[in-house]
Amino acid sequence: MEPYYHKVSYYETDRMGVTHHSNYIRWMEEARVDYLNKIGVSYARLEEEGLVSPVVGLSCSYLRSTTFDDTVRIVVRLDSYRGVRFAFSYEMFLPDQPSPVFTASSTHCFLDQAGKPVMVRHNNPKLDALFKAQLKERRE
Amino acid sequence: MEPYYHKVSYYETDRMGVTHHSNYIRWMEEARVDYLNKIGVSYARLEEEGLVSPVVGLSCSYLRSTTFDDTVRIVVRLDSYRGVRFAFSYEMFLPDQPSPVFTASSTHCFLDQAGKPVMVRHNNPKLDALFKAQLKERRE
Amino acid sequence: MEPYYHKVSYYETDRMGVTHHSNYIRWMEEARVDYLNKIGVSYARLEEEGLVSPVVGLSCSYLRSTTFDDTVRIVVRLDSYRGVRFAFSYEMFLPDQPSPVFTASSTHCFLDQAGKPVMVRHNNPKLDALFKAQLKERRE
Amino acid sequence: MEPYYHKVSYYETDRMGVTHHSNYIRWMEEARVDYLNKIGVSYARLEEEGLVSPVVGLSCSYLRSTTFDDTVRIVVRLDSYRGVRFAFSYEMFLPDQPSPVFTASSTHCFLDQAGKPVMVRHNNPKLDALFKAQLKERRE
Question: Which residues of C touch D22 (CB under 8 A)?
Fold first, then answer.
């Protein structure tokens, strides 16, 4: 799968001269939405169908800094998926650098509009199949 | 009326070493919500009642910079109110400085949840009276 | 010149369901940096050479809303340039819509690292020539 | 120690109707700066003295949502401090609710302006003493 690219904006830097650490959390979201698109899932459409998918946990390691004008390559993978929870991992890279600048994982669930947890395999069999296919591909 | 105070956060600075200009727009919103509270209007309650109040125009002058740890004093005034439109003006100051660091005005309207313009004096007579009292006070 | 495109992120929306108005200010910056790149000016390099270019004024009209997943087309033009000040105008569009969702202008100056205004035609003749060429092109 | 309070701004919500998850990371920073102030350390002064303190790791659990107009109480504690690394923990609460809405920890180091790790007890004995006093107080 093609990685996602984010070009660092000036407004994402802070007075240390580098990208403020909170923005990586936002890029994780951009890259996750892009990942879903690439496997055939529109997050906007999921919402229209009444599903939301909040973040329930995050874990991040900041390894090197980035700054304005850098193009950050973001590799996303579905790490686990069972029942109502699923998790992604992220690696972010600067061009031509083999070591990541940032690694992270995020855990999510699906909720309906009343805020109740949703079993994807009952509620959205197509999404369930796409997630299972991704996990299978990773194991192979 | 007591001014509103905003303490500049580190994440609001950029690599020029100063507050990024987009954050003043956000402080205008904070100060506007605080102003409404002080005249007896809860913006959260307005929303529950089905009113929203988008920004339709902004005009801003950046006169001096501010940075992390500065406490910015924000003076808000209702400048005009007629029919569906109303406008606020803003002046922001650093402590012990007579000249503002930033001045601005914003124009707003009220919409119902279908996105239709709302005449406040029909829809919300209490708010209409509060706005008129503010304008009257300014003129005196 | 090719327009700049910004895809609206989830984190750019607010609980009105649409893009928060402060983000358009940030997209103006993204589009301005992209415009400079397209005429041959790297803003990152200008900074390395000791020039910064703060915003001194903004004027914005919010005409329609945008939201998550929208791809916003942003047309930037250099509107004026004389001495130490220059101004850009912006029009933002949703796909296949002839009327803009947002229009704005921004005024800027150039400062050296001591915060002193800089005459671009003395300090950076290449940039001066590029700006004059853009203005000339617009008039023709 | 008095907790830190953050009132949720409208611009911090997203179209799910709740605070966007990235903002909690920013509130952690606000609360950390406030904590340092309360034990007698100005982060702005540390920077003037040539020290910066980037985030090297984060771990967050999102337990319940918050939204516009909520006043979030944030309890920060220094969890560990040895050599060049130190860690804080955070608990965030809504008024009158015994269970937190969010818990997290962050790990930091101190760097000099050249980006080299700094042993606080050599470079800044006053800060070293303050951190040790905090840890001792926690254990008692």
Answer: 11
Residues 6 or more apart whose Cβ sits within 8 Å of residue C81: C87, C131, C132, C134, C135
CA-wise closest residue to B20 among D89, A47, C54: C54
CB < 8 Å from A in window 6-65 of B: 10-11, 13-18, 20, 22
D26-30 contacts at long range (C-beta below 8 A, 24 or more positions apart):
D26/A22, D26/B9, D26/B11, D27/D72, D27/D74, D27/D92, D28/D58, D28/D74, D28/D88, D28/D90, D28/D104, D28/D106, D29/A22, D29/B9, D29/B10, D29/B11, D30/B9, D30/D4, D30/D6, D30/D74
Task: Profile chain B (140 residues) by mean pLDDT over runs of 10 residues.
Answer: 97 97 98 97 94 96 98 97 93 97 97 90 92 91
In chain B, count H helices and then E strands.
4, 5
pTM over 0.95, yes/no:
yes
ipTM here: 0.95
Is D67 within 8 Å of chain C by CB? Answer: yes
